[in-house]
Amino acid sequence: MSVEDFTNKTYDYVICGGGTAGLVIAARLTEDPNVTVAVLEAGGNGLNDLLIDGPNLFTQLWGKPQYDWDYKTIPQEGTDGRTHGWIRGKVLGGSSAVNFNMFSMASKQDLDNWAELGNKGWGFDDMVQYYRKFETYHPSSETLAEKINDKYLDKSLRGTSGPIHICFPDTDLAWVQDVWPKTMMNAGYKPTRDPRTGSAIGGFNQLNTIDPKHNRRSYAARDYYEPNADRSNLSVLTHALVSKIELEKTGSDARATGVQFIVDGTTHTVKANKEVIVCGGSINSPQILELSGIGSPVVLEKAGVEVIADLPSVGENLNDHTASIIALGVKDEYPTAEALTRNPEIMQQALDAYINHKAGPFVGAPTATGFASLEKIQPDFPDAEQHIQSLVAEHAKKYPDGDLAGRDQLLARQLLDPKEAACQMVALPTGGNMENVHIPSKLFNSEDDGMWCIIAACSTRSLSRGSVHINTTDPNAHPTIDPAYFKHPLDADIMARAILHAINFTEFEPLKSVLRRDADGGLVVSKNSGGVLPKTIDEAKKFLRTNTATEYHPIGTCTMLPKDKGGVVDNQLKVYGTSNVRVVDASIFPLHVQGNIVSLVYAIAEKGADMIKGKKAA
Predict the structure, then answer these.
(1) How confident is the model at residue 303 (pLDDT cuts 50, 70, 90)?
(2) Does the keyword DNA repair apply (predicted)?
(3) Which of the two ends of the chain, N or C, has the fewest CB atoms closer than 10 A to its terminal CB?
């Protein structure tokens, strides 16, 4: 659609961002032929792009401007002053087009925390229906089920008719998919239950967002937008950068009348008759609000933006999952990503297999994961509660904020619950170079000789909170991103224990027999990981500083809380100080949840669409 055609129409709703959540909202609202919807997307249309469709080609998208915003954090004190690259999708479908295709589930307590904080209607039992609504679960064949060990899944809890396809692709399995669950079992982990039950302690192969009929990525553009692209009441404009929401003061609130956007350097305006819905994600959504005059007067005035709505919490509460990585050598008979990247001929054969037959290594995305409670990480921790509470109290003294301390208490309580995960474990058949955390496209694959694998200890609900803020009126300028990694002492403490726990897996079969050993019988550790594994908590804390990356799960910058507790949106997702602006994306998460977040983004978008329609929860 041309800019002229787009702006000549009138719309009930204008959606800022055609990403994971934005396209869900657009598809659901336009189910009513009498409702008109406009979507503005800064990126292009990547439908039928091989690099997006190929489930295991995602690293080839990173850093490329046609797919990725390619954000950078400010230097992080907690990681020895390193800058971290943050991949965020800049294409129709947003980050659902560029992620790992891994499909997790928030725990019951994760979401019940949200309700306990004052967000009525957002507890686990409220949200389960929306998980089912967006997914179609494809059971594995008997042969594949035996190989992948997916008996933990309960088909009765899964959706059967939603747009997003969930499965284990029926292709050649990576050796890690066979080795990982067996190793975890031998390490003392009981068989897990389906995470949809509300808990997921154990080691297992995790589902992927892959359509098994075509062996391609299932994501928002493919499965929410493409089937509905011809609807006359849906207009989508790509390569259109939102510059601000047009607001007019109406008494105590501001009303959105339209949205300004830029195409090829020229500013245009599209009018909104009912609502403006911001779906830019945890970076772009606070940026759009601040550019529009909604935020902290201190931030806005410094950036040169007129204050329309005084809302200091915009851009605050940034929270991310960290991944602390151990890179270990494996025997040559266990091929890893290095076998492809070092041999152009094998790489071409793998690409040909996918292009021509939808087969080969690029079909299967990562699956090997697990969730460990603090009790499992360190069973001999008799003073755990006292220790955790003392670290929470220590942080609260340095950063006094009554409500924040209350949220920290919820997370501390969760860490002590044996049914809740203190960390996530991920195993990948690839090496890594942690010196390249600022360039994600160069983060994976080892530069050392031989085959390599990664065991990553990942946070589930970090207490460290940073911020995202504009520093100029220029919408093309990236905001300042500070995730404040390991700012809270409890994060470093828990992850240090998790790293030591992860190292223990190397002594259990069958992983033990896969790993290479040096002349003295020791593990072969990547030089980029320091060449030596930590043995004590203090050594592990030092290890974290140089071996930690993001898991690309930022949340919380337009948090859903009561206004007096630091909220940006209420439990109807409406922005405080406005009458008709909502935010629907991961930025509204008031607290983090375990695992990969794309499933919860789909669920909140489905719920958000029902709210906008005025539908009551089932």
Answers:
(1) very high
(2) no
(3) C
d(C-alpha 517, C-alpha 513), whole Å: 10
In terms of CATH architecture, what is 50-225+319-565+588-607? 2-Layer Sandwich (3.30)
Alpha helices per DSSP H over 382-532: 384-398, 402-415, 489-504, 511-514
Mean pLDDT value across residues 412-417: 94
| Residue 202, phi-psi category: left (phi > 0), alpha (psi -120 to 50), beta (remainder) | left
Give Cα separations from 580 to 29, 191, 469, 612 (angstroms). Answer: 16, 48, 23, 10
Q: Are 349 and 529 in contact (CB under 8 A)?
A: no
Rounded mean pLDDT, 419-442: 95
pLDDT digits (tens, 9 = 90+) for 370-405: 999 999 999 888 899 999 999 998 888 887 765 777
Q: Which parts of 41-120 are beta strand (E)?
A: 71-72, 85-86
The 3-class secondary structure across 179-205, one letter per residue, is HHHHHHHHCCCCCCCCHHHCCCCEEEE
Break the chain into its structural domains and give their ranges: 50-225+319-565+588-607
Contacts of 390 (CB under 8 A, 6+ apart): none
* Strand 11-16 versus strand 266-278 pairing type: parallel
> Do 585 and 279 touch, CB atoms closer than 8 A?
yes
Gap between the Cα atoms of 153 and 559, Å rounded: 32
* DSSP code of residue 206: P
Is 270 marked as binding a ligand? Answer: no
pLDDT for 298 beyond 90: yes
Q: What is the arithmetic mean of pLDDT over 543-558?
A: 97
Q: Is 330 annotated as a binding residue?
A: no
Q: Is residue 132 within 8 Å of residue 162, measured between CB atoms?
A: yes
Residues 6+ apart with CB under 8 A from 418: 201, 373, 374, 375, 376
Q: Does pLDDT of 523 surpass 90?
A: yes
Give the span between the Cα atoms of 122 and 114, in whole angstroms.
Answer: 6
Closest CA to 490 of 583, 599, 405: 405
